[in-house]
Protein 1
Amino acid sequence: MTGQHPQRSVLVTGAAGGIGTALVAHLAAEGWQVLATDRPEVCPNSAADLPPSVHWLSADLQALALGGDAIDAFATQADLITRSKPLTAIVHNAALQ
């Protein structure tokens, strides 16, 4: 079923961990544009090994939950990435510490 989602984007939280990394790889292989998020300290330093359909957005969900500037900045980044492929799914894999 590879390539069945050519016009769709998915947001994956907790994307830097084991399950998150597998989810991102699987969704990208299936043709999704992936917005991968995780805390700044665990996001990869280089996207060289990622397919072009994967975009890393550093985000602390606890900070985003408080709203304000953090959520506005995240929303702006996500909007720029998903303009051509609307966000149609969210996989919440993040844990709160």
Protein 2
Amino acid sequence: MFRSQKHNFGTLIRRLREEKGVSMRELAKSIGVTYGYIGNIERGEESAREDRIQSLAAALDYDPDELLAVAGKIAPDIVKIYLSNPKKIAALLRAQV
């Protein structure tokens, strides 16, 4: 993940957390990480694994696919679909633009 992606992801996490009125400690506890990890994510100093992004999405009531996209990642089930027929899927996606 590039620095700008980390920053955008972290900014979104902070905004969602603050909108819910949840502290970093509360969010961290709810997904099983340290509050320092949440701080690093919010400052764009650390990237999150897909499973942690899924947990963040659930804790913050946010669409997991959208949160993965902001983080520059793609859900594993979507990757599997793409890999089943990359040429056809790529053409389909390009036609939507």
